[in-house]
Amino acid sequence: MLFSPKKRYVVQTLGSEVLRRKAAPIPAVTAEIRELAEYMYQTLRQFDGIGLAAPQVGHSLRLVVLAVPPESMSSPPSPGERELLPQMPLVLVNPEIVDRFGDIAVRDEGCLSVPDIFAPVPRPSRVILRSQTLDGGIITAECGGLLGRCIQHELDHLDGVIFCDRVEPDEKRLIESDMRRLERYGSKHQYQRVITR
User: Fold this and answer.
1) Is 154 among the catalytic positions?
2) Catalytic residue (one of 83, 142, 154, 176)
3) Which CATH number among 3.40.50.970, 3.60.20.40, 3.40.1360.10, 3.90.45.10 corresponds to the domain 8-196?
4) What mean pLDDT is predicted for residues 70-90?
């Protein structure tokens, strides 16, 4: 009986230096970029996440894959939620936030690169996203709700920022020992989480 080779899905964890680097712009969408985007989406599915940035899979490039569930839509929804949630999964090439506004909302966040650690993060409730797509199109959308938060979280990764960096000092003290434990564990495992399927 023949067996197909197993595929490895790897996410970099806290302590990995690629997570602290400012990612490089993508000059052109090539076959390699499409392949990376597909790998990122499959990795996101395997780890049951809603967003993943290329540095999290070890590539310092400005590429993000989102799989925010359509049922997360706010009431009333932002224009970007109405436009983009039905298109999930969505690949963002060289995305940028061109404006942040609205009330500061504090919500618990987690991260595939910081497993099993959650903390409240203050972020603006709305952002204007501008991004290229894999097919060369341009998205410009006002995004709120979980989508807006996920965009801010993932684009932080492109600048070497992890959600723990945005946690208020009093709250950060509550997770510091867990973060140190994760880094110690990571140092023995190449700062990687691996699923083989």
Assistant:
1) yes
2) 154
3) 3.90.45.10
4) 95
